[in-house]
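Reviewers of the previous submission asked for a worked example of the structure-prediction workflow described in the proposal, so we include one complete record here. The input consisted solely of the amino acid sequence. No template or homolog information was supplied to the procedure at any stage.
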Amino acid sequence: MSFKDIFKNSFLSGYASGVSIKTVLFSLGVTTLLAFYIFFIYRLVTRKTFYSRTFNLSLIAVAIITAAIILTIQSNIVLSLGMVGALSIIRFRTAIKDPLDLVFIYWAISMGIICGAGLSVIAVALSILMSGVVVLMQNYPMKKLSMILVVNSRDIDSDELILEIVKQHCEYFKVKSRNLTADSLDMVIEITTDEDRRLVHHVLSVNGVTSASILSHDGEITHS
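From that input alone, the workflow returned the following structure tokens.
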């Protein structure tokens, strides 16, 4: 055996560490349990909004795959370098529409990394803490969301009267757009009110108003 072979074997054996079957099964088992826990927390949090079952299922897969990668990296440093190079070419093109989805993605990845590293206690503690924070903040009473009032009128001079009525019924209002033509007026007003039904009826009573509608949304909150 040449000096080159001796040096190569010494280098590789110095950086290789076997991972027992028991360790692998335990790590993947804990990761799977925590991944299903994340699955149910995501479903609980998004019950009032748009729920994507495929995205939720992908969280389970992401956690388990990440744990398997970490376990593989632990076994051989040379293999880990090749795996890092292979994973670096992966690009994700899917846009994340909700920032909360990004939180759950990082949560799932973190569970895989922590469990794969053999620190299951930290993973369990982090999952309990994260679920408590997410559920608490999701149900925390926030300021009332703004609504959008859309008014169509055949009288182009009725905008001042409409705004007077809006001022009477709303805690906050702001004209977002005012579209005028030769014989019509279209107004979009951001409002905050508890009297939406009375407001619509009152606006419809204005001479020339043909329609009035209020749209609610779950987006940003306007602070007056």
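The first helix runs from residue 3 to 15. We consider this example representative of the routine output the project will generate in years two and three.
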